[in-house]
């Protein structure tokens, strides 16, 4: 009985202390630390939005994005008010002298001074890249997200795949894929009496998918297209989740979208692992490496193994190769197809550019 009383006498105060400590940590995380950072930023002469409890500027950013996207888009190169409406608002309100905003409980300084920007880019160890949003890791990590020695290692191994001479070998593939698309357009024109309206966006999405699938995976093209479709689904799911109102801890909830993300990620990794294993077995059997990006990447990695040994400090693991393959898609497909659409829009808006481009092509390549 005495022992039980003494245990309670110790346990109750200890539990209270733990609760007080936990409450203090939460208050510090949600309020005290952000307000301290805000005060320090203002003391250094920076201007920006005041910190808002829980969400920071995420709610305002979300509402501004919805409002901007609800309006018709002007046919102009000045896309910042629509594409980055909140940043446009911050710069207009607080000036271009490196204003700050809030991503949850963390301040984000918008660097607009070119001298400072150059200094930051040159001091990669003093200013490392921030950690990716956990959702974005479902798309890819890879070279673009690494810091320091890991970035240096991956850049060294990947670089041969993007050598100019290697890229020239891929030109026939580019030509065939684009030619197939143009043939489809010509058939559509012929069936409509020589004039019709064509929505080029899905065609350009498909042609960039075809080009990347061929150049990234070569003979495994069909499997590459399947990976592309899965990766495209991942992007749509992630943008849907990122566009929702920010709620702290929401990403940890086992929602249907999170389950689909996880399943798609497993399928993508399994497919990539199958392609990689086939190519590695072919290389071990003495076959010459193919001129697709994955083949060149594996060849470069094997050369590093021969020179430096099979150490993770010097070479890429299979997991690393998988992530770089995912980057081929996520960094290349959407950006390229959007750029092609915008190029066509500008050529339509400025017909004289069409004439100048046509003259240059005829001058260089003939009829």
From TrEMBL:
It is a single-pass membrane protein. It is found in: Membrane. Its main location: membrane. Signal peptide: none annotated. GO terms for molecular function: heme binding; iron ion binding; monooxygenase activity; oxidoreductase activity, acting on paired donors, with incorporation or reduction of molecular oxygen. Keywords: Heme, Iron, Membrane, Metal-binding, Monooxygenase, Oxidoreductase, Transmembrane, Transmembrane helix. The chain crosses the membrane at residues 12-32. It holds the Pfam family p450. GO terms for cellular component: membrane. PANTHER family: CYTOCHROME P450 72A11-RELATED, CYTOCHROME P450 FAMILY MEMBER. Belongs to the cytochrome P450 family. This is Cytochrome P450. It comes from Acacia crassicarpa.
